[in-house]
Amino acid sequence: MLFKDKTVLVSGGSRGIGLAIAKKLAHNGANIVIAAKTVNAHQKLPGTIYTAAKEIESLGANCLPIQCDIRFEEQVSNAVDLSVKEFGGIDICVNNASAIAPISTEALDMKRYDLMQDINTRGTFLMTKMCLPHLKKSEHAHILTLSPPLDLNDKWFAPTVAYTISKMGMSMLTLGHARELKKYSIGVNSLWPLTAIDTAAVRNILGGETMANKSRSPEIVADAAFAILSKDPKECTGNFFIDEVLLRDLGQKDFSQYSITNEELLRDFFISDEIAEGLPTKTANIFQSK
């Protein structure tokens, strides 16, 4: 199998996109480390690091669940150390953990502002930094960050500036680290979905069941992540991939299996008209839907 004996550390992997990516790679032989905060079940946040580990182990893979809040350096350092102790190294770092509060400046309290900056941009930097000594030793080293294409159009910043700068900060890390780490043959890329994805954030923060019905399943992002991480890191670095665009480029034509319902799909944040209009899939604008 392609990822046999490779170790993948996924931040925020107890549910949603992170778990879907972990399961896809586990199915193809990878050892998985789930580094996430949730250890107790929550009514609105299904899944813990332990339930995620059981799902992964049911695929015949090895999984190490570690409670880790990526805001804290000692916890990230501990997660990396435990991963290396368990599996002998780290080959792939998936920066999936993220906080979202897409609201206006007046409405946003500073606690949520700090949470987004600490988890999204700072947490991605910290996790990457701690994994780096081990990635440098790998023959197939990748860093994959779930963040959007870099775009300084003010329409992305005006309605949700705090959230936007935290996500664009993650993408700026991809830009900088791709260049900085190229000498170590580490592939550094970002991945973002074309449409909204049916996750806890969508159901609890953005629009509930109504928006979930206009979303795709996390498996489309997992399939795109698998395609990226399968590539030679020397050749695949510094890219800002969109899931459907990438999969179409690889020859996939049917995307119906990812739809939750038959309703019109809702375009995700930060997807430009140029990207959306260049695809057969028709999507409604997420801002216009509100």
Describe this protein's structure:
Helices cover 42% and strands 13% of the residues. With 290 residues, the chain is α/β, with parallel strands linked by helices. The chain has a single domain, classed as Rossmann fold. It has a seven-stranded parallel beta sheet with strand order 3-2-1-4-5-6-7, with helices on both faces. The chain has a two-stranded parallel ribbon with strand order 8-9. α4 packs parallel to α6. It starts with 6 loop residues before the first strand and ends in a 6-residue tail after the last strand. The mean pLDDT is 93.
**Architecture in CATH?**
3-Layer(aba) Sandwich
Helix content: 40-55%
What form results from the Cα inertia axes?
Answer: globular
Task: Note the main sheet.
Answer: 7 strands, parallel
**Low-confidence sequence ranges:** none
Q: Distance between the terminal alpha carbons, to the nearest Å?
A: 45 Å
> How many separate domains?
1
Widest sheet: strand ordering: 3-2-1-4-5-6-7
> What is the helix/strand order?
EHEHEHEHEHHEHHHEHEHE
Based on CA atoms alone, the radius of gyration comes out at: 18 Å
Highlighted features:
290 residues, alpha/beta, seven-stranded parallel β-sheet, two-stranded parallel sheet, 13% strand
Short account of what is shown:
This protein is α/β, with parallel strands linked by helices and 290 residues long. It has 11 helices and 9 strands.
How are the SSEs placed, and which strands pair?
Elements: E1 7-11, H1 16-27, E2 31-36, H2 49-57, E3 63-67, H3 73-87, E4 92-95, H4 110-135, E5 142-146, H5 154-157, H6 161-180, E6 187-192, H7 200-206, H8 208-212, H9 219-229, E7 240-242, H10 243-249, E8 265-266, H11 273-277, E9 283-284
